[in-house]
Amino acid sequence: MVRLVYSVVLLSVLGFASQVVNGIFMDKLSEKKLCADEECVYTISLVKAEEDFNAPDCRFINIKKGEMIYVYSKLMKKMGSGEYWAGSVYNDQLGTVGYFPSNIVDEQQVFKEANKEMNTTDIDFFCE
Fold first, then answer.
1. Cα(70)–Cα(1) distance, integer angstroms
2. 31, 36, 107, 124: which has the fewest Cβ within 10 Å?
3. How many Cα atoms are found within 13 Å in the side-chain-facing hemisphere of 17?
4. What are the backbone dihedrals phi and psi of residue 96, each rounded to the nearest 5 degrees, phi first?
5. DSSP state, 53?
6. Helix (H) or strand (E) holding 122
7. How confident is the model over 24-63, as pLDDT tens digits?
8. At the top level of its lineage, which domain of life is listed (predicted)?
9. SS3 state of residue 60
10. % residues pLDDT > 70 (the chain)
11. All domains in the chain, ordered by first residue
């Protein structure tokens, strides 16, 4: 019985490890973010893309001019870098969340103010 439990635990850990190996932790774009709530789960706003954006790496999402994007958090500016927001394209079937520059969108509707300052974590910049 002990061997069976040990085997199940070992396989679970190995299974989890193989999932982590399939992803990569990328450099942080910011140390802080603004959210609408303490857990950063509420949608802040709906924005419209004013131009195309091609994702330079897996932290970002591709956006086409005219697409609507739900915004979930707003990264706070670092010295020397632009401001990025996290969101997902409205018509994206997979619900992929990624970053995009805030200066290429126009905020159409605000659902809840982003007034909770939170620390970013490594998982905010994890890519699968």
1. 50
2. 31
3. 6
4. -65, 130
5. B
6. none
7. 899 999 999 999 999 888 999 999 999 999 999 999 999 9
8. Eukaryota
9. strand
10. 77
11. 26-119 (2.30.30.40)
